[in-house]
Structure formats: structure tokens, C-alpha cells
Write a structure and sequence with these properties.
Blueprint (H helix, E strand, L loop, with lengths): L1 H23 L12 E3 L1 E3 L1 E23 L5 E6 L6 E2 L4 E5 L2 H20 L13 H5 L2 H22 L6 H48 L2 E3 L6 H8 L8 E6 L6 E2 L8 E16 L11 E6 L2 E13 L9 E9 L10 E16 L5 E3 L2 E8 L2 E6 L1 E5 L4 E4 L6 E3 L12 E3 L1
Parallel strand pairs: 1-21
Antiparallel strand pairs: 2-20, 3-10, 3-14, 4-6, 4-9, 5-8, 6-7, 8-10, 10-13, 11-12, 11-14, 12-13, 14-19, 15-16, 16-17, 18-19
Length: 419
Amino acid sequence: MNRLRLWMAAFAFGLGLVAGCQLATEKPTATDSPKVLPVTVAEAKTMMVRRTVPVTGTLYPFEDVVLAPRVGGRVERVYHDVGDRIGPGELLLELDDYEYRLALEQARAAYEAELRRLKLSALPELGTDLEQIVARVDTVVEAKANLGYAEAELKREEKLIGVAGAAQAYDTAVNRLAVAKARLQLAETDARVMLTNARRLKAALDDAERRLADTKLTAPNAPEWKQWLELLGPSKTPLQYAVAQKMVSVGEMVQSMPVTNCFRLVIDHILKLTVAVPEKYAPDVAVGQKVEVRVEAYRDRVFEGVIARINPTIDVTSRTFRIIIHIRNGDGELKAGGFATAEIITRNEEIVVVPPEALVQFAGVNKVFVVEGTQAKVVEVRVGARDKQWIEVLGLPVGAKVITSGQKQLIDGSPIRIR
């Protein structure tokens, strides 16, 4: 009896659950309507923006050269130190030149002695007829005179052939003529050797003069100096080298091998900013484009640069290519070796922008809600440049009214009311 009652109670409970589910799944009546949501809107507008490529890099001197004497010796004088400005050809240091002056005097004496033997005041240029010089050498003149005497003696003996005892004298004359010819040839050969030796001694003299001159270390006199002046243009200070390092002192010994570096000179009136540009920007970057450069030392200043060189190859590891930007620095405000950020100005372009609050992002998808009659419509967009006041959107027509508030409650087709 108790089991029957329990079974009937369970059956009644199940009927109640079924009835409740049916009530819960009934459709709303025709009198129910979606809630109209109040929203604010803004218009998608166009504006001109400047397209740039952001890069960073290190500032390098326009020219950077390390100098060392071509000869060894003890430093006798040093004329400049770090920070000095010097022009091309200006003296930097001198080495003790005593031994080099002695070597020069010896070389000059040997050369001049050989010239006197050749009866010359200076060596003739290459290509000159040397036979005239050879003919004036004393030994050659003497040998020619002996040859003429031997020829004349032989002619006299030829006339006395029939006289008794003349045959022996004739043979002697023939032998003397042969000896005279040989001595002339030998004298001419010796004269040519003297000419060759004179050229060798002249080369030794030139080398001694050069080595003596090399005891003085000077700033380079670059043939491109005029081009650099034109590239720099008007400047507060004249184009000069700056001493970046002085590596020796008076009394120190320097060597030519291995080289002892003595000075490092830089030209910093123009600086080179070397940067790496991602390969995707290759079509946008060209020589001559303007660049805005900023450094930490002058946060509120923009220094103007221009692209001077573009590496034609892409680094396979970083997938970037190198460019060199020239920056005028005639007043010396920028320092070589410093870090700089820059923006390469590629072009000006008209874009469509909306307020930042109009953008809705979900699961990596960017979209905006636009007003279509009395409803909200979802439009998927792509995002470009950004600023505090606007965001560039692609895929949205100009003049579209985008919803800027209340988007979290909206779905595609939601009824709205512009407040």
C-alpha cells in the first residue's frame, strides 16, 4: 500500500515538471517588441596623412680615418689633441728625423757623383735618345779617339805592304784596331750601366726624401674635399677634421710594421645614420627622400636628413636592407656614435578615419557599427594608422555614420535611437 502511494506521488511530480517545461518554451506574444537602444554617432571623414617608415640606428661620422706614420722613430713633437679642429695638410706630429736626414745626404751624394761621371746635371726623361748621352762619357770619348788612331795607323800600313818588314807592322795595326773597337764597345756598355745605376740612385734619393718627409704626420688632403663642401652647403663652421683620438705622446717610439696608430680624425659636419629597413618597405624607400631624425639629447628638435645610399641586397637573416641617411651637422650639435630614431617620409595620402571609440575588437576581428535607417549594421574593417583622436579604417565609405557608444549591447540589426 505504501509502495503504491509513493509511485503515485512520483508520477504526479513528473507531470508537474512536464507542464512547467511546456510553459517555459512557449513563444512570446505578438505584443512583445525588441528594446530600442540609445546611441551616439560620428561621421567617417577623410584627412591627409603623411606615410612614414620608422627606423632606428647609430650616427656615424661622414669620414673616419686612423693615421699612422709610414716610418718608425721617436715622437719629437705633438701639435694637436682631442677636440681640436684641423684643416687638410695640417701638421699633427713630428718624429726624430736625424737618421733620415743622414740617409738623404748619402743618397744625394751618390746620385750626384754618378751624374758627374755621365756629365749630366739631371737624369733625362724616359724615352730620351740615350746614345747622345753615352757618346759624351769620358771613357767613351777616349775609346773613340783610340779607335780613330788605330784606323788611321792601319791605313798607313796598308800603303807600305810592299816594303820590307811592313807585313809585321800591318798585322800589329790590325790587332790594335780590333782592340780599339772592343774597348769602345766596353766603354759604351759601361756608360749605359752608369745610366741605369744613376736611375737606381735617383730612386734611392727619392725614397730617402719621402722617408724624411714621412717623419711628419699630417691630416689627409682628400681629393673629394670640394665635393664634400658642396654637399655640406652653408655652415656655421668651416669644413674641418676633428681629432677624435690622440694615441701617442712625446718621447714614445712608433713603428711602421706593425703599424702604431697615432691619431683618429673624423668629419662630423655631416653625419651618417645607418639603419635597417624591413623588406616590405622596399618599394616605398628611394634615394633623395627626406627623413626626420630625433635624438635623446634634443627631444623637442627635429633634424632633417636625406637618404643617400640604399643597399641593393636584403639580409637573409633579419629580412632587412641597410640604408645610409646623411644629416647636416654644421653647428656640431649632434655627436657621432649616438643613438637616433628617424621617420622616412614616403608620401602624403588621403585616408578615411573614425573616432577610436567607434572601433570594436573581438577575437582578432575589427568592426564598427553603422547607422542604417533605425538599425545598427555591422561592418568589418581593416585598421591602418592610429592617433589619439582618430583611427584609419579601410572598408568603410566616407560619410558613413558610425556608432561611438553603446556597442556592447548591439548586434547586427539591433533597433537604435540616436540621442
